[in-house]
Design goal:
Blueprint (H helix, E strand, L loop, with lengths): L2 H35 L28 E4 L2 E4 L4 E10 L2 E10 L25 E3 L4 E4 L6 H11 L13 H4 L9 H9 L4 E6 L2 H15 L1 H13 L2 H5 L4 H6 L4 H11 L23 E4 L3 H9 L11 H6 L31 H5 L4 H10 L1 H4 L14 H10 L1
Parallel strand pairs: 6-7, 7-8
Antiparallel strand pairs: 1-2, 3-4, 5-6
Helix pairs in contact: 5-6
Length: about 400
């Protein structure tokens, strides 16, 4: 048989293979699309009532108003979301409320198994409470321990006031990656679900991490973090040693320049923006600031409702039954949730920061933590410890 005759037989076989491949691709695409829009996790989506605490602020009433953040335009066509941005600066505190909407759920982002918020190795896989249809992102040094206790108590867990509740092994809270990817996709994109996070300006957050890890728990710091730092290749090349780290563990300058740059993925000082995949920030329905933790927590908890009896989380357990010290089971108290803060967490006042920061260290944080400071979703007030003229004076004295 000559080659020209062979080609007549090969052509149909090739076309058949192409058709099979196209059918497989279409089936996969259809399955993924169906998974996004199906309601496997619940029979119906119930959009919860959202409690707005406007205070001295105002709501945008222009139906055609749009806001662009990070290249994403949010059109006011869906449910309005309370962007709680109670902020604090050197002049005192002021409260502002920003309004935005989540993206169009008909064209949602796709959740992947490798996403930071879903990966088994992720540091910030969020907590899920099905009854209140809430996905909560606990951020270290932003009241995360207190909120873990709250969600444990909300689900009736007896271990909510135990001393150590930081890990899933210790607390038993359900996380986003405990669900299959279709269920998790619905939680992260449905307007019937709440997605909340409390954030903190980098300068007070970094100082809080330093005082907690390097000062209060110095033995643990020297044992855990100093060996990690000393083993770094660049540190070795520059003559760094375990002894140097142990000797300088109480230096805030050493902490910023060496520890945060070498062990940069630690959740206590890693940038908040980098803990959540970029594509998921627009889906947050509550972004509140640590500087107004008590007020922000109350407004958030008043906005999430039980799907069984429509009672808010605030009325359920937030209004009373809390004490001044976390983890004190013998003295629970009758205060509201976060009405009083443990003294070891109050490290965000300006006078406290001035004891540790210098103009040079402030510039270091402004540069290395720019992704948080200038994040379009965070709305931080500019926090300046040292005016420009004071910085110039400091330079001239050197």
């Amino acid at each position: 048989m000559i080659p020209s005759q062979l080609s007549k037989y090969r052509r149909p076989a090739t076309l058949a293979k192409i058709c099979i491949v196209l059918i497989i691709v279409v089936c996969i695409a259809k399955k993924e699309f169906t998974a996004i829009h199906s309601l496997r996790f619940s029979d119906e989506i119930v959009v919860p009532k959202i409690a707005f605490d406007l205070g001295d602020t105002h709501q945008t009433n222009d139906k055609n108003h749009s806001e662009t953040s990070g290249g994403i335009t949010h059109e006011n066509k869906l449910t309005s979301i309370d962007f709680d941005a109670s902020r604090s600066d050197s002049k005192g505190s002021e409260t502002s409320t920003y309004w935005h909407t989540i993206p169009d759920v008909k064209r949602p982002s796709f959740l992947r198994g490798t996403d930071l918020i879903f990966s088994s190795s992720g540091q910030n896989v969020p907590i899920v409470n099905e009854e209140y249809r809430t996905v909560f992102f606990p951020i270290a040094k932003c009241g995360s321990t207190e909120f873990k206790r709250f969600f444990l108590r909300l689900q009736g867990a007896e271990n909510w006031c135990e001393p150590c509740i930081h890990t899933k092994y210790d607390n038993g809270l359900r996380l986003l990656n405990d669900y299959n990817i279709e269920e998790a996709q619905e939680m992260m994109t449905s307007p019937g679900w709440n997605r909340a996070v409390f954030i903190r300006s980098p300068k007070p957050r970094l100082l809080s991490a330093f005082l907690d890890k390097a000062i209060k728990n110095k033995k643990f710091f020297i044992k855990k973090f100093c060996p990690q730092w000393a083993k770094d290749k660049t540190v070795k090349e520059n003559g760094g040693s375990l002894e140097e780290c142990a000797e300088k563990h109480d230096s805030f300058e050493f902490f910023l320049h060496n520890i945060t740059t070498t062990i940069s993925n630690n959740g206590h000082w890693r940038t908040i923006h980098s803990m959540v995949d970029k594509k998921w920030w627009p889906y947050m329905t509550h972004i509140a600031h640590m500087e107004d933790l008590s007020g922000g927590a109350e407004r958030f908890l008043k906005s999430i409702y039980s799907k069984f009896d429509n009672v808010t989380a605030w009325d359920r357990i937030g209004r009373t039954g809390w004490g001044a010290k976390e983890g004190d089971c013998d003295n629970i108290g009758n205060e509201t949730f976060l009405a009083k803060r443990p003294s070891e967490h109050k490290t965000n006042a300006k006078d406290k920061m001035l004891q540790y920061y210098t103009p040079e260290l402030e510039r270091f944080v402004d540069e290395h933590f720019e992704d948080d400071i200038n994040n379009p979703f965070f709305h931080f007030n500019k926090l300046t410890l040292f005016p420009q003229d004071e910085e110039n004076a400091t330079k001239s004295d050197r």
